[in-house]
Amino acid sequence: MSTSNVKPRTNMYADALQVQNACNLSGVLRSWLEALDTIRAEGGTTGSTQAFNEHPVNVLYADKVYSLCGYGSHFSAACEVAEAKQAT
Question: Other CB atoms closer than 10 Å to residue 72's CB: what's the count?
């Protein structure tokens, strides 16, 4: 019996809802990447960048990433660190 690294295809809508309870940023991002590929492959947008960006699955993932990163409370400090380290 051979083993494969190919994951069975899941429902991206169910996944996007399920990650709303997640606490692992890297897991959320990996799942989102799979969803992005699926959205494109299924033609889930009208071809415009805005439609792709605002796809309901993307909105759910983006909101979760926003939440996990504490965006509102840490953005200024993160910018300062990134600006200081970009030249190094």
Answer: 9
Contact indicator for 31, 19 with CB cutoff of 8 Å: yes
Predicted TM-score (pTM) of the model is 0.77
Residues in Cβ contact with 68 at an 8 Å cutoff, skipping those fewer than 6 apart: 22, 23, 25, 28
**11-69 tens-digit pLDDT:** 999 999 999 999 999 999 999 999 999 998 887 666 788 889 999 999 999 999 999 98
Count of alpha carbons within 13 angstroms of residue 47, beta-carbon side: 0
Rounded to 10 deg, the angle between the 25-41 and 56-69 helix axes is 160
